[in-house]
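Checklist before submission:
- one chain only
- standard amino acids only
- sequence pasted in full

Submission:
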Amino acid sequence: MTIVPKVRTWAEKAETLSLEGRLFIDGDFVPAKSGAVFESVNPANGAVLAEVARGDAADIDRAVATGLRAFKSGVWSRMAPRQRMAVLYRFADLVEAQMEDFALIDTMDMGKPISEMLSVDVPLALTCLRFTAECVDKLQGTVGATAPDVLSYVLRQPLGVVGCIVPWNYPLLMTMWKIAPALAAGNSVVLKPAEQSPLSALLLARLFVEAGGPPGVFNVVNGYGPEAGKALALHRDIEKIAFTGSVEVGKLMMLYSGQSNLKKISTECGGKSPHVVMADAANLETAAEWAAMGIFGNQGEVCCAGSRILVQRQILADFTEILRAKAEAGYRPGDPLDPTTGMGPLVDVKQQKRVLDYVDIGKQAGAHCLIGGGVPEGLEKGAYVAPTIFTGVTNDMAIAREEIFGPVASIIAFDTFEEAVAIANDTSFGLAAGIWTSDLGKAHRFARDVEAGMVYINSYMNGDMQFPFGGWKESGNGRDKCFDALVSYTQTKGVWATIG
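Returned file contents:
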């Protein structure tokens, strides 16, 4: 007789998950020097997941000193590139072997649906790590054309100790976008994860050492931005800060660099991205499906979310109704551990209040709330906000100008292509932009004229690992994912040798 094992639900699996909350320094888990802790809370129900060590400047000092010692020893920075590549490949294999654990951790820590973690976040994190590992021995210097008695060459070398400060909306994926190229280039890393979602980073650090990464090369200091993050950015032994977060804090990173050692700063600071739908779009159903994903995917907690949906007036009514249907059918809030859930809670009640406050601001400004705008019935215990669509929005309204970072779409009508480009560019941000059109000329003129670091034609938030991720204007100055990201964690050294 065949015995069929009982299939456990994700909720049952979550109960067996062991969560580590201490700091990870010099290859081991340690408490904060102060002994202070804070709580990591499940935004779906308010339950405490774990007590997390609250690192501060003293812990940053300890982690940076450990990273610098490891860097100067050459145990990682001077490891043969193919050996470093092998460690990173083993690291990727270990992450993949614990895919379900990573999915569960981020789902419970920040509310992302488990189905999205398994289909998007973990696979893309693995792709990033393996792509970057493959690039390790592709970093090359150059030899100059000189007189015969001179040899001139340029070395490309790691920076030293790199500080990575990552957001809470994609805890695993954003962490990997930063640490993978930094480590691949031979640097040591001190990572400060967002206090709202620190748990998956700690598992990553342990697996790096298990894969053969030398202790001290990858360190994690949990904590709050004004305590741990600021100390990391001001530290004189940090050679680069790789930051993703708000514009306000991104600007502080620049100030901290000037106040310390002129360390390199790369920033990705969010956006208010325009998603343009022309009347000649080939298929409004498809355009609406991508538009819905572009603002309601990941609960709208996406820096390049297409939160300003610009629709040509002659199709405005039809497109709005299709978008409403897509939002209501595909993004129904629910338990993030249920594989059928299309939208989980926001990261915490603070973010929930921020989004709901913007909904009130939009209503007061005269925009019409077509759907959503509140907490879904029956989900009052969590940090939920229903998918929300505003119509009648003008580009001078706060809901069209300020990053809300939640599931709130603003539909803005326009008449001509030129007007659409003008509205698209009327923002202090410049991260992403998209257009739906059958006119090849319009598509490429839009790509040429729109002020954004990434442009999507007849899709949205698409791309692969060779596609650079980053923005213009106040959206920041760095690039993630691509080969240039790896290069940005190195510096050049020119050598001039007279050989006789």
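Reviewer check: The chain has 16 helices and 19 strands.
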